[in-house]
Amino acid sequence: MVSLRCKMVVKEELKNLGLHCIVVELGEVEIYEDLSQEQHDKLKENLSRSGLELLDNKKNILIERIKAVIVEMIHYSEELPKINYSDHISEKLNHDYTYLSNTFSEVKGITIQQYIIFHKIERVKELLLYDELTLTEISYRMQYSSVAHLSNQFKKVTGLTPSYYKQLKQRRMGNLENL
């Protein structure tokens, strides 16, 4: 679950099954009652209809929790943690980072660091499109060591420079105005 809408859907489905939730967080649900096999199957079916997946494999659950911590850290926090990402993820999930990293790579086929970079670049794209911050400010906010480092990583992931990406948006807006 990576959005408020997802959490609302899950809460509603639990309520429809007569289940009472203690916690509904990104990637994690805790309920008061024991879940019968029938309720489990119905919940899985109903969530699937909403485009969500019920995970009950321990590795998949851990991967989703790692992804949720990263998404929350990059997309929903005002500023990134001052400590290493590895320390932050380990603290949040109460697991050794090496174990988390190995499990993530085994299941997803990419490293946690690569996953973080992809999300950071997605966040940079958003910030570029909002056009409220300079590239220097974005670089600082996203904890890049320099604008050059951000630009190199952006180009490596997207194939475009940040300034060209921003120009594409401005061209699209100009084309819409000319219609």
How many strand units? Answer: 2
CATH topology of the largest domain: Arc Repressor Mutant, subunit A
Number of separate structural domains: 2
Can you write the helix and strand succession as a string?
Answer: HEEHHHHHHHH
CA radius of gyration is 20 Å
CATH architecture designation of the largest domain? Orthogonal Bundle
- Number of helical runs? 9
What this model shows, in words?
The protein has 179 residues and is mainly α. It has a two-stranded antiparallel sheet. The longest helix is centred in the C-terminal third of the chain and has 19 residues, at 112-130. Helix content is 66%, strand content 5%. The protein is globular, with a radius of gyration of 20 Å. Helix 6 crosses helix 8 (147-158). The protein has nine helices and two strands; from the N terminus they run H-E-E-H-H-H-H-H-H-H-H. The chain has two domains: 4-54, no CATH class; 59-170, Orthogonal Bundle (Arc Repressor Mutant, subunit A), CATH 1.10.10.60.
